[in-house]
Amino acid sequence: MLDPVLCTVHCFRYIAKLYHEVSIMRSLSHPHTVKLHEVFYAKRNIFLVMELAEGGELFDLLTAQV
Question: Is the separation of the CB atoms in 42 and 36 below 8 Å?
């Protein structure tokens, strides 16, 4: 959990949105989305361990098809 002493009100709103996003990512299970395997919380960082998505950048693939 992040240290509340280090955060401002704006920071708390951002963190609440971030926790909500992580909870959504945990609930997703679809063959076309990257799987979230683990979340590690440190004092000033949140680390997301996600599935490896090989094949290059999605943006490059999309722009090459236009």
Answer: no
- Report how far apart, in Å, the C-alpha atoms of 5 and of each of 1, 16, 46 are: 12, 16, 17
Contact yes or no for 7/15 (Cβ under 8 A): yes
Domains identified in the chain and CATH numbers: 4-64 (3.30.200.20)
33-66 pLDDT tens trace = 899 999 998 888 889 999 998 888 888 888 987 6
Give tens-digit pLDDT for 2-28.
555 566 767 778 888 989 999 999 999
